[in-house]
Design brief:
Blueprint: H1 2-15, E1 18-22, E2 25-33, E3 43-48, E4 57-60, E5 63-73, E6 78-84, E7 87-93, E8 96-105, E9 108-109, E10 116-117, E11 123-129, E12 142-145, E13 148-156, E14 162-169, H2 186-189, E15 195-199, E16 204-208, E17 212-214, E18 217-221, E19 224-225, E20 231-235, E21 241-243, E22 248-251, E23 255-263, E24 266-278, E25 285-290, E26 294-296, E27 300-309, E28 312-313, E29 319-325, E30 334-340, E31 343-348, E32 358-365, E33 372-380
Parallel strand pairs: 16-24, 26-33
Antiparallel strand pairs: 1-2, 1-4, 2-3, 3-6, 4-5, 5-6, 7-8, 8-11, 9-10, 11-14, 12-13, 13-14, 15-18, 17-22, 18-19, 20-23, 21-22, 23-24, 25-27, 27-28, 27-31, 29-32, 30-31, 32-33
Length: 383
């Protein structure tokens, strides 16, 4: 009787099994739910023709599972219980970040029999495959889960093939931790990139029908200008405004459309400008701010606005100046100390925290406040 059952199992594994990857190796297995009712833990029973061990990783239906117990085996097959890994956890070893698929529990959980024992709030247990990388995890090592910081307070190596970590909430370090991506101490070993993209013609510009306008666009990383950045341009209405990938705009028909410039490899960084197409005879003012793009903390520098009408210098127009931090934070890390005609003097703040930050100087045309120009000014420490 036992022989016939084993032969049947062998047949079903060979002919009816589902494909999975067991520790990266493709094979057929039989899978069924571990319990009658659907549970959040998503546990299944897996039967395979090859050995199954506690701690093995299974890729099944685009999810990763951890074998949490060896149940039995016979001459033809091996049977075990597997549970879906519900999080990926990043551990950081002096800048060497490694990700691990893990089972994270807010309660003490016996993976062998499913018993749950309440433990204090703010504590979690993590179950990982026991391997050379996870054995490097140390007591008091920090990590993030669901954008919250934790610290390893206990390590249990007694579970065959599995490492259990007992963890408690830790304090957040915004200077070093990449909270958004759940990586502790990331910026302690890497440079945090803050990209920005700016169209210097302001928020509105004009182009004559069947004429062209070259957009003046710069990109910065941590306030420093990027040489030859890859930028992608799009028009909201190509039948009115056409734009090529060099930022050359052409007026196709009377009307208006928006041009969006995006950093090609960082498409979440973008800027937009409204372009209006009009016939000859209309004034089309634009502003260019001339001055040093760098300013040392505590020092001053002068800036001048050149005003153009269809590319020709005009001297009967004036601007209003304003200053803000590039990240819109407060207080402003500089001040306007003098303004004469269309020139202005800026003094950078003396705070050491301003290093690698940036100011944005804005010139607004008095006769038409929709015409503005902005200039990024990177701040550097004096020494």
């Amino acid at each position: 009787m036992t022989r016939s059952i084993n032969l049947m199992l062998d047949f079903f594994l060979r002919e009816k099994g589902q494909p999975i990857h067991l520790n990266g190796v493709l094979q057929n297995v039989i899978i069924r739910e571990a319990v009658d009712k659907i549970q959040a833990t998503d546990e299944k029973i897996v039967r395979a023709a090859t050995p199954i061990y506690t701690g093995d990783l299974v890729d099944y239906q685009n999810e990763r599972y951890l074998i949490t117990s060896e149940i039995d085996q016979n001459d033809q097959s091996y049977r075990g219980r597997m549970r879906k890994c519900n999080y990926a956890i990043a551990f950081n070893w002096n800048g060497n970040v490694k990700w691990f698929d893990a089972i994270v529990e807010g309660k003490s959980f016996s993976i062998d029999v499913g018993n749950v024992i309440s433990i204090p709030d703010g504590s979690i247990n993590i179950f990982l495959q026991d391997n050379a990388d996870t054995r490097d995890i140390a007591l008091n090592q920090r990590f993030y889960n669901t954008h919250q910081p934790f610290k390893v307070k206990g390590i249990n190596w007694t579970l065959k093939g599995i490492i259990q970590l007992s963890c408690t909430l830790d304090s957040m370090n915004t200077a070093y931790d990449d909270v958004e991506n759940n990586i502790a101490d990331r910026w302690k070993y890497e440079i945090a990139h803050t990209y920005a993209l700016h169209i210097h013609q302001g928020t509105i510009a004009h182009v004559l029908l069947n004429e062209t306008l070259s957009l003046n666009v710069t990109a910065t990383d941590n306030g420093n200008e990027i040489a030859n950045p890859a930028i992608t341009y799009t028009s909201s209405d190509p039948s009115v405004i056409n734009v090529d990938q060099q930022g050359q705009v052409m007026g196709i028909s009377l009307g208006q459309a928006s041009i969006t410039a995006k950093l090609t490899y960082h498409p979440t960084v973008w800027s937009t400008i409204e372009i209006r197409v009009a016939e000859t005879g209309t004034h089309f003012y634009s502003i260019a701010i001339i001055g040093n793009p760098f300013l040392k903390t505590g020092q001053s520098a002068s800036y001048v606005s050149n005003i153009y009408d269809l590319g020709t210098d005009v001297f009967d127009q004036s601007v209003q100046w304003s200053l803000r931090n590039q990240d819109d934070s407060t207080p402003i890390m500089g001040s306007l100390t003098a303004s004469t005609g269309n020139s202005v003097t800026i003094k950078a703040g003396s705070s050491s925290g301003a290093n690698n930050k940036a100011l944005v100087l804005t010139a607004t045309l008095v006769s038409d406040p929709s015409i503005i120009a902005e200039k990024n000014i990177s701040l550097k420490n004096l020494f």
